[in-house]
Amino acid sequence: MPPKLRILLILLVLLALGAITQVCLHSVEEIHYLKSFFPHSFAVQEAFYAGALELVKVVIISIPLVLGIAVCLFFLRRR
C-alpha cells in the first residue's frame, strides 16, 4: 500500500472519530441547555426522554461514520 494512501486512511479514521466526538458533545450541551432553560418544569422523566432522543440522534449520525471507520481499518489491516 502506498504511504500516501495509508496516511489518507488514517486521517479519515481520525476525522470520523472527531466528528463522532463533536456530535456527542453537542448532544450533552443540548441537554444541559434544556435543563438550564426549564429548571423548574424539567422533571427527571423528561430528562430521561431527552437523553434517549439525543442517543438516537447520535446513533443515527454515527452509523455511517462507524462503517467508514471499519472500511478504512479493513484496508489498513489488509496491507
Order of helices and strands: HH
Structural class: mainly alpha
SS field, number of helical segments = 2
Give the overall form: elongated
Distance between the termini: 6 Å
Round the mean pLDDT to the nearest integer and report it.
89
Helix content range of the residues, please? over 70%
Please give the domain count: 1
Q: Tell how many strands the DSSP assignment holds.
A: 0
Q: Quaternary arrangement of the chains shown?
A: single chain
Work out the radius of gyration: 18 Å
Major sheet attributes: none
Share of β-strand residues: under 5%
Low-confidence stretches: none
Helix-strand layout with pairing:
Elements: H1 3-37, H2 44-78
Helix pairs in contact: 1-2
Summarize the structure.
The protein has 79 residues and is an all-alpha fold. Helices cover 89% and strands 0% of the residues.
Characterise this structure:
The protein is an all-alpha fold. The chain has one domain. It is 89% helix and 0% strand. It has helices spanning 3-37, 44-78. It is elongated.
Features:
mainly alpha, 2 helices, 89% helix, elongated, 79 residues
